[in-house]
Fold each of these.
Amino acid sequence: MDPDGTLAFASHDHAACRDGALAHAEAVAEAKGLRLTPVRRRALEILLESHQALGAYDVLDRLAEEGFGRQPPVAYRALEFLVEHGFAHRIRRLNAFAACMHPGEAHVPVFLICSACNGLAEAPGAAVAASLRQAAGPLGFRVERMSIEAVGLCPACQGGSE
Amino acid sequence: MDPDGTLAFASHDHAACRDGALAHAEAVAEAKGLRLTPVRRRALEILLESHQALGAYDVLDRLAEEGFGRQPPVAYRALEFLVEHGFAHRIRRLNAFAACMHPGEAHVPVFLICSACNGLAEAPGAAVAASLRQAAGPLGFRVERMSIEAVGLCPACQGGSE
DNA sequence: TCTTGACTAGTTATCTTATAACATATTCCT
DNA sequence: AGGAATATGTTATAAGATAACTAGTCAAGA
Ligand SMILES: [Zn+2]
Ligand SMILES: [Zn+2]
Ligand SMILES: [Zn+2]
Ligand SMILES: [Zn+2]
């Protein structure tokens, strides 16, 4: 769907991009017997609207506007479900959440965060993960989860004035 | 001082470890003309007491007990100074801060966080950083800062019961 | 059918983390 | 000494996250 992560920073047919990711997620949920309930589904759709990370309260506002509950746990629970099952990722550096571009596929994402436009891309991180494990090995540390995030400038924002 | 990051998870003379790091930081501050004032110095000492990350409010409590201000900005400002000048690191995953084990040396730290004992080690991340840049390259993304953190089990916590 | 248990979604209340804005004091340089 | 820059302190508030409880849904089994 976006195997190399190049989509987010390139101009593309985002309606198709969004719909594809959603359909993909639905198929995965179906296959795994997970209940993609209305709030959860809507939360995912909201995250899929842009290639940016959204704070839990941003998502909550949107959900509340649409008739779902207006209290923080509503958003946090939906997001927790999405993250737990691989439909979304949590971006620690931003205290925010973003839809996963590869739901259902095992992958270690590398997040590239543009400090100018807030764009977020999910690059393939297998090699980075391997080298992280190599770094941890000599210390006898057993890696279970990792977060790999970079802040910088996306191609579009590297232009003139910075 | 701990070039390979093995110290944190191994039993060692921590008094010497702490004093060495502090002395090193002082030398760096001196050389760079930075003012390691009493609050800042004390905040660093507090971080150096253990190989764990501390929340800003934990540091604040300690500072307040010792006669410094009791309001959040007191801790946040001291910590911001330490991070900005490379005497400490911010651990995003934990919303916490830890003393840097290599102040004054350019380095990309890889943080290894033990989920059982909260121990924190700072492994050398040059290779990981390089592979991250390689992952970002094809997207045309210019990396400026990165955070690389892993959660797992340190050698001591891999024992029997988990 | 009715009950029980698992799960979902809603609420109130509270906690933790972080920053804005302003006042005072200190330090550094001329 | 005077003035600029830096540092420390305050109050108040914003932003992010969770605990604890209540109630609705739904399917399996008595
Ligand atoms: Zn898109
Ligand atoms: Zn993903
Ligand atoms: Zn030590
Ligand atoms: Zn360091």
Amino acid sequence: MLKYQQTATEIEAYIEQHALQQGDKLPVLDQLIRQFAVSKTTMTKALELLERKGTIFQVRGSGIFVRKTNRKGYIELFSTQGFKQNLVEHDIQSKVLSFELIPCPEEIIENLGSAPGEMVYAIKRIRYIDGNIMCLEESYYRQTIVPYLNREIVEQSIFEYLEMALGLNIGFSDMYMHVGKLPDAVATHLELTAGDPALTVETIFHLTNGRPFDYSVITYHYEHSQFVVQANGLYL
Amino acid sequence: MLKYQQTATEIEAYIEQHALQQGDKLPVLDQLIRQFAVSKTTMTKALELLERKGTIFQVRGSGIFVRKTNRKGYIELFSTQGFKQNLVEHDIQSKVLSFELIPCPEEIIENLGSAPGEMVYAIKRIRYIDGNIMCLEESYYRQTIVPYLNREIVEQSIFEYLEMALGLNIGFSDMYMHVGKLPDAVATHLELTAGDPALTVETIFHLTNGRPFDYSVITYHYEHSQFVVQANGLYL
DNA sequence: TAGTGGTCTAGACCACAAG
DNA sequence: TTGTGGTCTAGACCACTAC
């Protein structure tokens, strides 16, 4: 683990230990540098990390303060940061509806940037959050990049397998979101009624080297999912 | 403008001028450093900015590459970065439905962290994107922080006024999103039918010093709004 | 193994906030 | 004015990729 990541983790522990609340002040920079025995740049980087993560905010000329969201029961759709493991406070289960190895469907080729006829794993899962239906997920993995998958893996966390077992480095993703009315087929899976509202998120995942390897479409159950995003900076 | 921001802007211009496409390689780090005459740290910071903004991605041991989303017509709900001015490619108009100075409503006090009885500007607007109804926005500004607003300002960009005229420094925000069925009152304003799907986003905006100054609830027109988010890192 | 991006340091100097 | 966070530099060294 890198020094600045380690430092960030230690600062989080410090906040936890001292039970600091929203708006509470941390020790000043120089103090933190001495306390954690790192250079100013490293400390700055650690703090920047925590700032993006939404853990603190820094005010020049004033100090470093704790930032917290006060609402519970919201899912972090994506943290402004990134590598934060979300949903840890929730119990996530999956039920696999289908699992196949098929030629890449026409309409998905452009999303995955795959060659015509290339094979993909096509997976359909219902995901549960704390016992409730959270979403229907349909995902497609390029076999060129993910050579092997089986039903057992797919019942667990696929991404953990990709990183741990296959050693793939997941880089970045493009997400496209829209709201609409549930089609009949999806409604059945979510145990809702056709025409009910739904948030649909299409995501294209890339490796760190930029190659797309996974395209997924997630349709969320509107009664069992709400999201929080901690943003930094202005965006109109 | 800071040097690393300036550098980032120049690199964007470089990409533009050379008409670089998704996956195209930029000059190597050392070359960029020489070319733009900055230190390695500064260049790294500029590149980090562009990476968070979704303009490039960097691969250790390999190079720096251009990243682009290929879908058009999507609104950037919030960039993973932040200060990127969104919607610039769209024509945004506002119609003010109501504009009042009132005591802070009960249910909003906790969101704004305001004192009981404190006065707030309450504004209701319909916002149009390229001539279509995009959303209904209800927002509340604390008069303690925003001493003056009028109908004319509110018809334009409020945030621009806050930053330019009042010199306020907008820091960070917490957003809460959920999907549901349109209530009758809102449906009318959006020219939709009660029960239609809707994305609702509540946002609490803070100054850089951490004080909340604006609470807003935006309900999006599901047929005229879809969003793109460029994320970095993993998030399940 | 060569090339490329990433981390880390010490220290000078700058910019903003609060009293 | 003082204290505090932010920027910038030069350079050493590390870690990954591709050949």
